[in-house]
Amino acid sequence: MIRNLESILIAPTISMAKTIEVIDKGAKQLALVVDTDKKLLGIVTDGDIRRALLKHLPMSCEISKVMNKAPSVVAQGTSKTLLLAMMKKQGLLAIPLVKNGVVVGLETMQNLVVDKVCYDNPVFLMAGGFGTRLRPLTDNCPKPLLKLGGKPILETIVESFISFGFHQFYISTHYMPDTIKEYFGDGSQWGVDIHYVHENEPLGTGGSLGLLPDTLPDLPILMMNGDLLTKIDFVQLLKYHETYQPVCTMCVREDEYKVPYGVVEADGMKITSLVEKPTHKYFINAGVYVVSRKMVSAVTSNTRIDMTELIEQRLKNSEFISMFPVHEYWLDIGQKVDYYQAQKDVIHGGRFV
User: Fold this and answer.
1) For 135-193, how does the pLDDT look when each residue is reduced to its tens digit (9 = 90+)?
2) Where are the beta strands (DSSP E) in the chain?
3) How far apart are CA 30 and CA 32, in angstroms?
4) What is the DSSP letter of 164?
């Protein structure tokens, strides 16, 4: 049982942005909302945050509007056997221990289960692009091997997945494939298995799925562009996908555009409203997916197609595509300015560290 909980205790009036910082730093995947006497008012998990983002709640909103006001709790002194059974039944990673409503501890699944969780889901990393917008940096080096903090971008991605318990990797190549293969080999240096599929011609962001072997396990595949720098919680992403069972889950980032003019709405010649410099919020594709085997099987080998086209095909068939909102650090290294920003974030104590 964890007794020192000060790092994850928050007041109901703090912002969602601050709560995300507390959850990240506390490393317990949750924060406990308490009053001044440490009486439990609610719990905020990663899932609660993402549901709030899907509703376009601002980062400045008070966490009392986001928290679970009726969380599962147990009395101090509950046996570990009963705790483990309860947590498995309800799918909980952690549960607060209370005495007369006051939080006195926290029990986590990690503490109760000693063995490290290992995920057999394949991880598919797309690393075949030319990196045209980053030339001349990519004239003699494929973009995924450009270094950040002394190691290639793709190595940072691989190590991130490994830290979450993934061990089966497939890398798609096209531009300078031998350079990538020579660097990563079979993955034994990292204690994992790395395999390669090669695009003889560029197949788009989704076409390389058709090159994956038919012998893959019948499990969802985590798929990611090989030029992203992110701290997405891949286990939470996978569990999200498995909970809702879509044919594909797309990670999304909220973005916004502030119109620099007053916007006029009208009915014919009659003005009905005037909004001064409105801000429009929307979600953008973050380049990270969980793809079902059903969707992979639908991709014909050596056929050029983008992920957006694949998803549009599924939508036309009325199939369920879910989106997973990303609040963690995320940077698409598409242009030189992005690469230099990534250098700052990794090397000089920026947001990624």
Assistant:
1) 887 788 888 998 888 889 999 899 889 988 899 999 999 888 899 999 999 988 888 89
2) 9-10, 30-34, 40-45, 74-75, 94-99, 102-108, 123-126, 147-148, 151-152, 168-173, 193-198, 221-225, 228-230, 248-258, 262-267, 270-276, 279-291, 321-325, 330-332
3) 7
4) T
In angstroms, rounded to a whole number, what is the distance separating the alpha carbons of residues 184 and 32?
42
List, for residues 211-234, the tens digit of each pLDDT value.
899 888 889 999 999 889 898 999
Which residue is associated with the tokens 């890398």?
Answer: 171
* φ/ψ (deg, to 5) at 30: -160, 170
In angstroms, the first-to-last Cα distance of the chain is 29
Q: Please calculate the CA angle 85-88-92 and round it to the nearest 5 degrees.
A: 120
* CA–CA distance, 290 with 94 (Å, rounded to integer): 25
Contact 74, 86 (CB under 8 A): yes
Residues, the chain, total? 353
Assess contact for 42 and 71: CB atoms under 8 A: yes
Residue among 298, 143, 330, 324 nearest 206 (CA): 298
Enter the pTM of the model. Answer: 0.73
Question: Which structure tokens are listed for 97?
Answer: 């221990």
CB 97 within 8 A of CB 75: yes
